[in-house]
């Protein structure tokens, strides 16, 4: 391992301290949701009802999350819905204990303010942090562009205290299945996954290999290339940590079953250049043309791609590889810029030869699905007010052997409605 010097980084304006149990819990969340949660944890205070709550303006949230454009309101609404459905799972194997906690009681946008109210059960994770907690810079958390890098930084940052004054690399081993869960590569909102997580000793291999229906990054090569290496690269470029890794292989076939991380503090060095900006720009334009050899790009086109990627040639190359697989590209440079900014990972759908039409159709479908979900929730809330609802609760608990709380948290509203209607028909 290459040795690196320890450097004192400048203090940030805000430091967030969180329980290690909370950081290392397994849950599904988008990057925007994670950033909203981080900001909420930092600003949380008890409201007049005694619940932990935080209120901040949409403009402040827009600035801190880096989300721009007219679509921010829709993204905020989707993120709020996601926060409401988040159940955090925590396990202490040594104490043979586990728990599921709903963190958010309400997420509301009204009159220019966005309000997040936490549940009473979450107080122990938000306050009384006398031990077993980790502090992180809010600026660092909000600088991440990908969710995988955000989560990997969080779970490795917990172990930073183990690094001695000599900055000798600390080794942290994660079983591959658990790592995929921690990095949000597995949808923990799935019914079968939730049931397995409820067991005293969940089988993470079973969750990843058998129960997860999405099957993202299934092979080690795909996970390594599209998740792990990209996340490590972003962490090493933007944070105070230096991370490398090595796969741990077992069995006769040498299958990767775990990942060993090497964690150090790093030096942040400023690179002084004696070349003029114009000379550097010319070199970068030349490199873009080397990457995109099959298209006759003008200097202006290359500069546009460099601006869109923030001079990141890897992003330009990734977008170009996708462009080779994409059908019906009308404006090559415009498509490349969109692919870079939106971080496309697969070819984009088109409708009648138009990517724009496809995106509009997609938004309409998402809007319809969202309305269906809202309607289903409204119906479910009306069912809960029925006089015979307590009888239904008892029946569900008898059939499942679980508290009704878990049934209510696990299943989407439309499934719960179907279950209630079927019960009504029989009774």
List keywords for this structure.
427 residues, globular, three-stranded antiparallel sheet, 3 domains, Arc Repressor Mutant, subunit A, four-stranded antiparallel sheet, alpha+beta, 19 helices
Walkthrough of the structure:
The chain is an alpha+beta fold. The chain contains 19 helices and eleven strands. 50% of the residues lie in helices and 16% in strands. The strands form four sheets. A four-stranded antiparallel beta sheet has the order 2-3-7-6. A three-stranded antiparallel beta sheet has the order 9-11-10. Strands 1-8 form a two-stranded antiparallel sheet. Helix 12 packs parallel to helix 14 and helix 16 crosses helix 19. The radius of gyration is 24 Å and the shape is globular. The N terminus is likely disordered.
How many strands?
11
- CATH class of the largest domain equals Mainly Alpha
Q: Count of helices?
A: 19
Contiguous runs where pLDDT drops below 50 for at least 5 residues: 1-12, 268-276
**What series of H and E elements makes up the topology?**
EHHEEHHEEEEHEHHEHHHHEEHHHHHHHH
Quaternary organisation? single chain
Question: Helices and strands in order, then pairings?
Answer:
Layout: E1 15-19, H1 20-23, H2 31-43, E2 45-46, E3 52-57, H3 58-65, H4 72-84, E4 87-92, E5 97-102, E6 104-110, E7 113-118, H5 123-126, E8 133-137, H6 138-143, H7 147-157, E9 170-175, H8 176-182, H9 191-197, H10 204-211, H11 220-238, E10 241-250, E11 255-265, H12 277-291, H13 299-309, H14 313-325, H15 332-342, H16 355-383, H17 389-400, H18 404-410, H19 413-426
Antiparallel strand pairs: 1-8, 2-3, 3-7, 4-5, 6-7, 9-11, 10-11
Helix pairs in contact: 2-4, 7-11, 8-10, 12-13, 12-14, 13-15, 14-15, 16-19
């Amino acid at each position: 391992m290459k040795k690196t010097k320890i450097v004192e980084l400048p203090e940030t304006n805000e430091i967030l301290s969180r329980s290690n149990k909370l950081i290392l819990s397994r849950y599904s969340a988008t990057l925007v949701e994670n950033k909203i949660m981080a900001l909420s944890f930092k600003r949380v205070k008890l409201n007049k009802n005694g619940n932990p709550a935080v209120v901040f303006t949409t403009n402040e949230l827009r600035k801190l999350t880096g989300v721009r454009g007219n679509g921010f309101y829709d993204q905020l609404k989707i993120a709020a819905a996601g926060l409401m459905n988040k159940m955090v799972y925590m396990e202490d194997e040594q104490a043979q204990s586990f728990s599921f906690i709903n963190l958010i009681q309400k997420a509301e946008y009204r009159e220019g303010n966005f309000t997040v109210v936490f549940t009473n059960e979450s107080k122990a994770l938000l306050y009384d942090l006398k031990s077993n907690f980790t502090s992180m810079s809010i600026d660092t958390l909000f600088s991440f562009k990908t969710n995988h890098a955000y989560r990997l930084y969080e779970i490795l940052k917990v172990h930073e205290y183990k690094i001695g004054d000599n900055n000798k690399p600390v080794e942290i081993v994660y079983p591959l299945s658990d790592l995929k869960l921690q990095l949000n590569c597995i949808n923990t909102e799935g019914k079968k996954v939730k049931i397995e997580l409820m067991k005293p000793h969940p089988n993470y291999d079973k969750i990843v290999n058998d129960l997860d229906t999405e099957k993202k990054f299934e092979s080690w090569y795909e996970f390594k290339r599209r998740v792990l290496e990209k996340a490590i690269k972003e962490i090493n470029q933007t944070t105070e940590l230096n991370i490398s890794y090595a796969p741990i292989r077992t069995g006769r076939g040498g299958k990767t079953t775990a990942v060993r991380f090497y964690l150090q503090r790093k030096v942040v060095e400023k690179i002084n250049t004696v070349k003029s900006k114009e000379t550097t720009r010319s070199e970068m334009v030349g490199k873009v043309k080397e990457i995109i050899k099959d298209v006759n790009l003008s200097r202006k086109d290359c500069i546009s791609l460099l601006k869109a990627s923030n001079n990141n040639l890897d992003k330009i190359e990734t977008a170009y590889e996708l462009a080779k697989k994409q059908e019906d590209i009308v404006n090559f440079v415009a498509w490349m810029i969109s692919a870079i900014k939106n971080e496309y990972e697969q070819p984009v759908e088109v409708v009648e030869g138009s990517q724009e039409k496809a995106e509009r159709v997609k938004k309409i479908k998402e809007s319809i699905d969202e309305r269906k979900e809202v309607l289903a929730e409204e119906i479910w809330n009306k069912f809960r007010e029925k006089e015979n609802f307590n009888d239904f609760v008892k029946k569900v608990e008898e059939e499942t052997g679980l508290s009704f709380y878990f049934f209510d948290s696990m299943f989407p509203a439309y499934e719960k409605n179907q279950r209630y209607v079927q019960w009504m028909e029989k009774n």
